[in-house]
Amino acid sequence: MTILVTTPNGGVGRYVTDALRARADVRFLVRSESSVRALGEVAGEVVRGDATREDDVRTALDGVDRLFLAHPFAADQLTAETNLGQAAVAAGVRRIVKLGAIDFTTEGAEPDNVTRTHAAIVERLRQADVPELTILEPDRFFQNFLPAAPAIAAGTLADPAGPGARAYVDVRDIAEVAVAELLAETPVGGSIEVTGPQPLTLAELADHFGTAFGTAVEYVDVPMDDAWRAGLAAAGVDPYVIDGLAGLYRNYHRDGVARTGDGVQRVLGRQPRSVADFVPQLVAAAAA
User: What average pLDDT does the segment 226-231 reach?
Assistant: First the structure.
């Protein structure tokens, strides 16, 4: 068995990498030399390549029979994941575990680019007749709040996702489900919704975070206006990504109280990590 891990330094991929770091039968696809350095020491093989280039993809997939398929949300995501998925089937890869996103079923949800891109990739994978296909569908990540840890520690949780409640999920749970599906003799397969144990509003999250820091944390709703866009652009965020985030956040507003999925229980046989399990990471990030 040989496993190929794509985006091994990503938000989920880094935890997948940590779980598989000591295995000699795992190959890691990275784009740049800086990504090689970020990956660190692994027992398996590291392959440099660009997932949007067919020659690089064929080289990375040579001899592979299981694939963890992930790519950052970007203008080239559809091309990269389609290239990898279709080339994987052609190369004889039997099992693909794709990192996707939970969809919106609420009436009035718009086809935002984040979930629409995932849906398009999944459809192409299904058309390619992958023998064993697992689609991970997580809700919003707890770890998305780590970059804001200093501001949260200072008393403010500023976020544009609105008043609804999301079933926030710990990225470590997503990675553990992915690894279990990659290594299982018989995977669960199909679409697996991976969420936290309960929906939480941002105001409720602020209360939990405040308890962890020993101070009051106020939730501040951030309007998705020109100033919000300008701030992201000044931070180097691509306009395509800004538009995608705006559509995603608008759907968070429309979705109200998100549903919870049973993916962690189904695959791992335990309850998902809670906000209490996540807050030590947030506190550590604020202190770093």
Answer: 96
